[in-house]
Automatic annotation (TrEMBL):
The lineage of its organism: Bacteria, Pseudomonadati, Pseudomonadota, Alphaproteobacteria, Hyphomicrobiales. Pfam families: AMP-binding, AMP-binding_C. The keyword Ligase applies. Its EC number is 6.2.1.44. Residues 24-402 form the AMP-dependent synthetase/ligase domain. This is 3-methylmercaptopropionyl-CoA ligase. One of its GO terms (biological process) is fatty acid metabolic process. It comes from the Bacteria. Belongs to the ATP-dependent AMP-binding enzyme family.
Length: 548
């Protein structure tokens, strides 16, 4: 009877808090001598990584870092960034990996809003961190990462990352969280408000997405993974933890170029890599002289914006097997995949590429990914025509937005996460995005808030009104396109406004094209962005700046 079942409570023997921290301890114990990390000419085994992580965690603890503290990190895809995905949460603290392409104003906002207690930063970003401190009117303790192969910068203060390793305790007690709902990471994502929102991950979600990824991607034992995805993006799509679980080898790279990717694939026998569609485009645009024949099939997971079917087809010719996935920062990255179906093998390459550009079906660890009517929240018909909004229910949905309960409640309205992406569902159940409900532009995998760009444009003395929408771009997927009304005596040009934006925001956020026109408005004066999106789409064939 039911009461007998209910009398069996949880015990330490049968209920352990789920956490990706357990993956490192397991892999280091089973495969201690296998190569874990490779960076340039440096190689670390899993035993060495575990030793280093415990040393680093012990020193962070000694510096006062503990349960619930935010530790902000600004670093490239180097071994230090990987190690901090374990060392920071091993102290009970929360890892806040900051986008290295952000301007000081946004970095200052993140440091303040996140309640950061410490900053760990590559000295290449010293100037940005110092300016952020100046804007906030206060400095934080800094641990300096000094990469001898990277761009040099003056350290901030006396503390160095290497000293943490040298002085740390290799016997540091390795404990997971007492509660799997405990915060693990804090990631900031652009939103329509113009200021980034803090997305909070918990240990349970990170554990489950790391378990689901190897199944969805059909990872073999000991994959060789090239880390092209910036580890500040959804914690590198949580691949740092997933590849540890698979006892893989992670190849780190500080800066992405097509030639370097081909070289590293050939040198290390890379089997897997991930990246936004811009990664695919850069590989395709790598000069033939800089390419090296692939030693075997290389599987690519791509996400960030729907890749053009033509790009998928051309990438396949090079020997890459591309799987399109879909997700958001709020869902730990990918929660849906375009799973290949055997019957597609009889189709033409173009038809296959078109189907592979769909967002697909739910990952194994995702409870529900659906397309619903925005008003009734009822599922739309599976007819490939009726448009609705993608909603997600999963253990890999964020805890919520940090210090923003109103936005959290809105995002979870109706009992699922409201993605803001408009899509259809095809008769086979596969989801395909048709449009973006949010005014966020995804360019080269980077989220850009249209409101933020508009805000900067409105600061120019010649600008009366500005509206920014996504302009389709063959290289970047999307780029910001600004429609501007000048004041009566305004003399600004496209070049001068773009230069003004470059001076006042991160370079990748600036508009790549500016159209001077009277903005279409409703009777109440609201700008009709859907009209501007149609105009921008008609401009798709017009070349934009090749710079990012």
């Amino acid at each position: 009877m039911r009461e007998h079942y209910d009398k069996l409570p949880k015990h330490a023997a049968n209920h352990v808090a789920l956490s990706p921290l357990s993956f490192l301890e397991r892999t280091a114990a089973i495969f201690p001598e296998r190569t874990a990390l490779v960076y340039n000419d440096q190689i670390w085994t899993w035993a060495q990584v575990f030793d280093r992580v415990r040393r680093i965690a012990s020193c962070l603890k000694g510096l006062g870092i503990g349960l619930g503290d935010t530790v902000s990190v600004m670093a490239a895809n180097t071994p230090e960034m990987f190690e901090l995905h374990y060392a920071v949460p091993a102290t009970g603290a929360v890892l806040n990996a900051i986008n290295t392409r952000l301007e000081p104003d946004t970095v200052a906002y993140i440091l303040e809003h996140s309640d950061a207690k410490m900053v760990i930063a590559d000295t290449a970003f010293t100037a940005i961190i110092e300016k952020a401190f100046e804007l906030n009117g206060k400095a934080l303790p800094v641990i300096n990462i000094e990469d001898p192969t990277g761009p040099f910068g003056a350290p901030i203060g006396p503390h160095t990352y290497d000293a943490l390793v040298v002085n740390g305790n290799p016997e540091f007690q390795w404990n997971g969280p007492h509660d799997e709902w405990q915060a693990l990471a804090l990631n900031y994502t652009s939103g329509t408000s113009g200021r980034p929102k803090g997305v909070v991950y918990h240990h349970r979600g990170a554990y489950l997405v790391s378990m689901g990824t190897p199944i969805a991607w059909e990872l073999p034992r000991h994959p060789v993974y090239l880390y092209c995805v910036p580890m500040f993006h959804c914690n590198g799509w949580c691949h740092a933890w997933a590849m540890t679980l698979a006892a893989g080898t992670l190849i780190c790279m500080r800066q992405f170029t097509g030639q370097l990717v081909f070289d590293l694939i050939a040198k290390h026998g890379v089997t897997h890599l991930g990246g936004a569609p811009i990664v695919l485009s850069m590989l395709l645009n790598t000069p033939q002289a800089d390419r090296i024949a692939l030693p075997g099939p290389v599987k690519i997971m791509t996400a960030g914006a729907p890749p053009p079917a033509a790009v998928l087809a051309a990438t396949k010719v090079l020997g890459f097997e591309v799987m399109q996935v879909y997700g958001l920062t709020e869902t730990y990255g990918h929660i849906a995949q375009c799973l290949w179906r055997d019957e597609w093998g009889a189709l033409s390459p173009d038809e296959q590429a078109e189907l592979q550009s769909w967002q697909g079906i739910a990952f194994p660890m995702t409870e529900r990914v659906d397309v619903v009517d925005r008003e009734t929240l009822e599922p739309v018909p599976w007819n490939g025509k009726t448009q609705g909004e993608i909603v997600i229910r999963s253990n890999t949905v964020m805890k919520g937005y940090y210090k923003n309960p109103e936005a959290t409640e809105t995002a979870f309205e109706g009992g699922a996460f409201r993605s803001g992406d408009a899509a259809v569902r095809h008769p086979n159940g596969y989801i395909q995005i048709r449009d973006r409900l949010k005014d966020v532009i995804i360019s080269g995998g980077e989220n850009i808030s249209s409101v933020e760009v508009e805000s900067v444009l409105h600061r120019h003395p010649d600008v009366s009104l500005a509206a920014v929408v996504a302009l389709p771009d063959k290289k970047w997927g999307e780029v910001p396109c600004a429609f501007v009304e000048l004041k009566e005596n305004g003399t600004a040009t496209e070049e001068s406004l773009i230069a003004f934006c470059r001076e006042n925001m991160a370079g990748f956020k600036r508009p790549k094209k500016i159209i001077f026109t009277e903005l279409p408005k409703t009777a109440t004066g609201k700008i009709q962005k859907f009209v501007l999106r149609q105009k921008a789409k008609a401009l798709e064939s017009t070349p934009t700046s090749g710079e990012f």
